[in-house]
Amino acid sequence: MLTLKNVRWSPEAGHEVLKGIDLEIPAGQLTVVTGPNGGGKTSLAKVIAGLNQITEGSILVDGEDITEKDITERAKMGVSYAFQQPVRFKGVTVKDMLDMAAGGEIPDDEVCTVMAKVGLCTKDYIDREIDASLSGGEIKRIEIASVLTRRGSKVLIFDEPEAGIDLWSFTGLIEAFEELKKEKDKAILVISHQERLLEIADQIAVIVEGRVRIAGPGKEIMPQLMAGEKYGTCPVEAMGKEML
Amino acid sequence: MDKLTENLLKAISDYTEGGYTGAYNIRENAGCGGRQSTENIEIVGKEDGSGIDIIIKPGTKDENVFIPACVTKGNVHDLVYNDFHIGEGSDVRIIAGCGIHNDDEEEAVHNGIHRFFLGKGSHVVYEEKHLGEGTGSGEKRIDPVTHLELEEDAVLEMITIQLGGVDKSTRTTTGVLKDRAKLLIHESLMTAGEEYVMTDFDVDMDGEDSKVDIVSRSVARGNSYQEYHSKIKGNNRCTGHSECDAILMEKGRVNAAPELYAGHLDAELIHEAAIGKVAGEQILKLRTLGLTEEEAEKAIIDGFLKG
Ligand SMILES: Nc1ncnc2c1ncn2[C@@H]1O[C@H](COP(=O)(O)OP(=O)(O)OP(=O)(O)O)[C@@H](O)[C@H]1O
Ligand SMILES: [Mg+2]
Fold first, then answer.
1. pTM for this structure?
2. Exposed, middle or buried, A50 (CB in 10 Å: 0-12/13-18/19+)?
3. Which of A14, A49, A205, A221 has minimal CB crowding within 10 Å?
4. pLDDT in tens, B93-129
5. Cβ contacts of A100 on chain B, cutoff 8 Å
6. B181–chain A Cβ distance below 8 A for any pair
7. Three-state SS for B4?
8. Domain at A1-78+189-244: CATH code
């Protein structure tokens, strides 16, 4: 279980991006965070993984306060994050990356299982470098595979896993998330704009302008989203009113 | 052969307790530390004693030749001329590393002048690993000069590695390619402390459909300084590509000066160069996999140099 209490983050003084987020991401469930572009979803993922340090509030994993822990320590405690924009490396191969993710050499059969989950053929990709030669969808899938390979994950965050991924692989991914849910000790947080993911969410949180606009069980939130209330007040409209 | 030489040989080539399998010539402190020819590969000393000729019979396949050189003390200025005559249609691997161990105050220098004559349709993989070690204040220097001549359809893959301990190194490589000949060079360099390396490639693609591909990956740390010069000349219908990537750490400096010359309308030449520090986001990504900052940096550098 991941708990966020009044989480605030400002990249620079006077510019607050996360404006007091309170959220509970339960284990054994799929929580989907959605909301307009620039709302603060990736910022939220980054403060959970420790890539950005919060300016106020606290973050707890299974009741333990991890606010003061750095990225490496959080990773070792079981916090995993699949980047929205995967990083490219010259010379580092898919195999190297998966070995690092596993914390040691990963057995061949496990490589096959994880690669199949993200819809990649092992023999075609395992020795490929994670460099500019990979397409957007390919590198995205390898990024997701790196998180699926982590051992002892307690909190798994996937930042727009659907981006650039074809329909067939996407179906496979949904299955992978469903499977992860069955491992009761894992809290799964997926950031997404994708209806199919929202439909299978146990919990949905809508983040607008750095705040949780609405949150609750998927069954309750989904009809509201579908009824056109997608993100509540349109932020552009709200800004216009203020200026008037 | 002394223990120091043996250790160097293990580090720079495939030397084992049982020695080498295949033809070899060991250069030890400017003298000969052992030599063996095989049925297809003949190694003979030059008459004036300045070096050796390595003669590979046409059609020789899947054989290895070891031509390592070691210097294990100061006040040695080794200069050697090695000529490789590769017979038509042969396919061999040549391992020619150089190791210097210097515990003395005087400098230790190895200067290998290598010439390669690749016969038609031959294929050679040439590996050269350079290493410096020892506690003396004497400088360790390796200055290889390599000249390559590739006949029609010959292919040379040259893999050079220098990962530390050599104080100064000037690496000069020149080459001439005939029709459909291919030259593939992969250089990995890492310098630290006050080390200096200068790499200079100068290749003429004279033959139609000849091809050159140079990939240089280097890391400059400490106060070290590296210079990279390459000149690829397309004098015919041909393709040339060079890629020079350098990572800077601490106070390392790099000067990359690539040059392309096209003397023919159908010469296609490309150069790519990038110099910069380890990308912060790469370190962040690996840290989210549980690596410490130091481990992440090492993984990035190791991958970069091998890739
Ligand atoms: N390091 C930073 N410095 C300054 N501003 C930042 C920084 N990181 C994010 N922001 C700003 O914070 C806001 C939220 O960005 P964030 O990436 O979290 O949005 P998002 O909800 O993930 O959007 P998207 O749906 O487009 O991925 C944006 O206005 C962005 O420009
Ligand atoms: Mg985002």
1. 0.88
2. buried
3. A14
4. 999 999 999 999 999 999 999 999 999 999 999 999 9
5. 286, 289-291, 299
6. no
7. helix
8. 3.40.50.300
Same domain, B306 and B233: no
Which of A7, A19, A42, A190 maximizes ligand 1 atoms within 8 Å of its Cβ, making it the mutation to test the pocket?
Answer: A42
Residue B291 and residue B217 share a domain: no
pLDDT at A228: 64
Nearest Cα neighbor of B230 from B248, B244, B211, B219 is: B244
DSSP output for B224-273? -EEEEEEEEEE-SSEEEEEEEEEEE-TT-EEEEEEEEEE-STTEEEEEEE
Domain match, B197 and B241 both: yes
| Domains held by chain B: number | 2
Q: Report which bound ligand comes closest to the CA of A159.
A: 2
Q: Cβ–Cβ of A92/B284 closer than 8 Å?
A: no
Crossing angle of the two packed helices A94-102 and B293-306, in degrees rounded to 10: 160
The count of residues in chain B is: 307
Cβ pair B286:A100 closer than 8 A:
yes
Q: CA A77 to CA A244: how far, in whole Å? A: 49
Give me the residue spans of the domains in chain A: 1-78+189-244
Q: Which domain holds residue B304?
A: 280-307
pLDDT tens digits along A157-196: 999 999 888 887 888 899 999 999 999 999 999 999 999 9
Pocket of ligand 1 (CB under 6 A): A 11, 17, 35, 37-43, 84
Query: Could you tell me the distance, in angstroms and rounded to a whole number, from the CA of residue B285 to the centre of ligand 2?
Result: 16
Is A51 within 8 Å of chain B by CB? yes
Q: How far apart are CA B75 and CA B107, in angstroms?
A: 5
CA atoms within 13 A on the CB side of B88: 3
Q: Both tokens of residue A19?
A: 């404006």
pLDDT value at A35 more than 90: yes
Phi-psi region of B116 (alpha: psi -120 to 50; beta: other; left: phi over 0): beta
Q: Is B280 on the interface with A (CB under 8 A)?
A: no
Those residues with Cβ within 8 angstroms of residue A177's Cβ, 6 or more apart along the chain or in another chain: A30, A158, A188, A190, A197, A200
CA distance B242 to B202: 12
Residues B49 and B147 in one domain: yes
Q: Which ligand is nearest to the CA of A39?
A: 1
